[in-house]
Design brief:
about 150 residues; mainly alpha; 8 helices; rod-shaped
Length: about 150
């Protein structure tokens, strides 16, 4: 409304030598303002879309971390590429997709080590590791100590 009112006032001024230039520049400024507004809307929409993708990813991880540890699996489940999934998850959560998967696995491993009498081999099998050795290396990489010392 301000733009239209200002434009009317300029048009109603008689004998203005720069009337066309003023209208042209005022119109350009108006469109730059609208462009900036639209850009901000798109940026917020992308963020919300990223948050939705991240939320969906985390739900799928929560349901499948015991058997699936590859980002490719989760990306295929969501019909997006692994690199796009990783980028969006990192941007909206601050952690990579792989870190989210590892966090779920390690929390379950720690819970099983502390709260059950399962052997390390049984825990390794429960979490679908190919061997106790792989589980031990995974646990040590994340926690800094071997599973038997954590227990």
């Amino acid at each position: 409304m301000n733009y239209c009112n200002t434009l009317r006032r300029i048009i109603n001024v008689k004998d203005s030598p720069h009337q066309i230039k003023i209208i042209t520049h005022l119109t350009l400024a108006y469109f730059y303002g609208i462009g900036n507004f639209i850009h901000k809307l798109n940026k917020n929409h992308t963020l919300r879309k990223g948050e939705k993708i991240s939320s969906t990813f985390i739900k799928i991880v929560r349901d499948n971390y015991r058997t699936e540890r590859k980002v490719d699996y989760y990306a295929k489940e969501m019909n997006i590429t692994a690199s796009y999934l990783s980028h969006i998850v990192k941007k909206s959560t601050g952690k990579t997709a792989s870190q989210w998967i590892d966090d779920y696995v390690i929390l379950e491993a720690k819970a099983l080590l502390k709260s059950t009498n399962m052997t390390i081999q049984e825990i390794s099998d429960e979490l679908n590791f190919p061997s106790q050795s792989f589980f031990g290396k995974f646990f040590k990489r994340i926690e800094g100590i071997a599973p038997k010392f954590y227990r």
